[in-house]
Amino acid sequence: MSSKILITGGAGFIGSNLTEHFLKQGYHVRVLDNFATGHMHNLLPFFESYPDYFELKVGDIRNLETCLAACEGVDYVLHEAALGSVPRSIKDPITTNTVNIGGFLNMLVSARDTGVKRFVYAASSSTYGDSPTLPKVEDKIGRPLSPYAITKYVDELYADVFARTYGMECIGLRYFNVFGRRQDPNGAYAAVIPLFVKKLMAHEAPNINGDGEYSRDFTYIDNVIQMNERAMLTTNPEAVNQVYNTAYGERTTLNQLVDALRINLSKFDPQIAKIEPTHGPNRVGDIPHSLACINKAKQLLGYDPRYSMAQGLAEACEWYWKNLK
Ligand SMILES: NC(=O)c1ccc[n+]([C@@H]2O[C@H](COP(=O)([O-])OP(=O)(O)OC[C@H]3O[C@@H](n4cnc5c(N)ncnc54)[C@H](O)[C@@H]3O)[C@@H](O)[C@H]2O)c1
Question: Which residue from 2, 148, 173 is spatially nearest to 80, judged by alpha carbons?
C-alpha cells in the first residue's frame, strides 16, 4: 500500500499543485480545506482521475476534532492551510492569528496524537521582517513587519518546541513569493504575478506600489514541489527539525517583472507589449528587497531548483493564457 499524505489547504494554489504531484507519484492524498480562499475547481479533476487515491475532507483547521479526524491513518502531513497576505492580516489580525496560529497548533497536536511520521509546513520569508541582510540566511531574522509575519514565525517556534518536547519530526519551508499555475488572480488579496497577468490580459495597466525598484525572489511552483518532496522523504537526520529558505536564489524588480510579463504575454496578444504600468505609494509592511540564500537546502536536502524565474514565468503565462481567457 502506498503512503498516505494529508495536504491541508489542498484546494489552494500551492496545496493543489502538491496534491496533483503526489497523486501522480502514486500516493494516497487526503485534502483538508474549508474553501476560505481555495476553490473546488482546483480539485475536481482529481476525483475523476484518481478515484481510489484522492479524498477530500471539507473542514476548518480551527476545529481540533476536524484536524484529528483528518490526520487519522496518515503518514505525512504537508500543512499549507493558512490565511495568506500581509494586507489581510493588517486589516483583520484576529482572524489571521486564529487560523495561522490556532489552526497550526491544532494540526501539530493532531499529527502528534495520531503518530504522523513527519510534519512539513508552509513557513514564510516574511519572518525575515526588517532585517536588511541580503541574501537572507535562515538563522538571521529581524523584527516582524505585520501580523501575518508574526503568525508564521510563531508557527516555527511551535514546531521547534514540539520537535524537542514530543520527539516529532517537523520541517518548515520559508516560501519566497511563489508563483505558477492555479495561483488565484481574483480577490482583494491576489498576489502580484496573477494580478498583473489578469490586468495585462484585460488591456489594463498594472499598478506598481512604489517606483518599481523593490525586488523579490520569485519562486516557481515546481521548485516548491521539489522542496516539499525532499523535506517529506529525507533520511538525513541532520535535515530534520529545521527551517529552509524555499526559493530560486535570484531577485527581480517589479519593473523587470512587468517587462517580462509583457514580453511573454505579447506572444499571444501583441497589443499587451504597449501597456505601461502605473505607480502608487509603497505599501505598509512591504520590505524593499528579498533574496534567499538557498545553500542550507542544497546541502542538507539536496535541493536543486530546476526553474529560473524566467522559465517559470514563461510556463505560467502560457497557463494563464489558456485558462483565464
Ligand atoms: N504563495 C506564496 O507566495 C506564499 C509565500 C509564503 C508562504 N505561503 C504560505 O503557503 C501556504 C499556501 O499558500 P497559497 O499561496 O497556496 O494560498 P491559498 O490561499 O491559495 O491556499 C491556502 C488554502 O488554505 C485554505 N484555508 C484557509 N483557511 C483555512 C482553514 N481555517 N481551514 C482549512 N483550510 C483553510 C484555503 O481555503 C486555501 O485553499 C500558506 O500557508 C501561505 O501562508 C505562501
Answer: 173
User: What tens digit of pLDDT does each residue of 212-253 get?
Assistant: 999 999 999 999 999 999 999 999 999 999 999 999 999 999
Task: Point out the ligand 1 atom lying closest to the alpha carbon of residue 84.
Answer: 43
Contact yes or no for 12/79 (Cβ under 8 A):
no
| Whether the CB of 70 sits within 6 Å of ligand 1 | no
Say if pTM beats, i.e. exceeds, 0.90.
yes
Per 3-state DSSP, the chain is made up of helix, strand and coil in percentages (nearest 5) of: 45, 15, 40
Q: Is the CB of 138 under 6 A from ligand 1?
A: no
100 lines ligand 1 (CB under 6 A): no
pLDDT tens-digit series, residues 134-153:
999 999 999 999 999 999 99
Q: How confident is the model at residue 284 (pLDDT cuts 50, 70, 90)?
A: confident
In this structure, which residue's CA is closest to atom 21 in ligand 1? 12
Categorise residue 212: left if φ over 0, alpha if ψ from -120 to 50, beta otherwise.
left
Query: In this structure, which residue's CA is closest to atom 20 in ligand 1?
Result: 12
Asked whether 177 lines ligand 1 (CB < 6 A), one says yes
Q: Which residue from 156, 151, 155 is spatially nearest to 139, judged by alpha carbons?
A: 156
- Crossing angle of the two packed helices 309-324 and 192-201, in degrees rounded to 10: 50
Tell me which residue has its CA closest to atom 30 in ligand 1.
Answer: 60
Give the rounded distance of the alpha carbon of 317 from its chain centre. 19
Q: Tell me if 275 CB under 6 Å of ligand 1.
A: no
Q: Catalytic residue among 50, 128, 148, 244, which?
A: 148
HEC per residue, 259-288: HHHHHHHHCCCHHHHHCCCEEECCCCCCCC
Residue 261 clears pLDDT 80, i.e. is over it = yes
Nearest to 243 by CA among 157, 145, 142: 157
Active site residue 148: yes
- Whether residue 101 has pLDDT greater than 80: yes
Amino acid letter, 140: K
Rounded distance from Cα 12 to ligand 1 centre (Å) = 6
CA angle 266, 39, 78 (to 5 degrees): 100
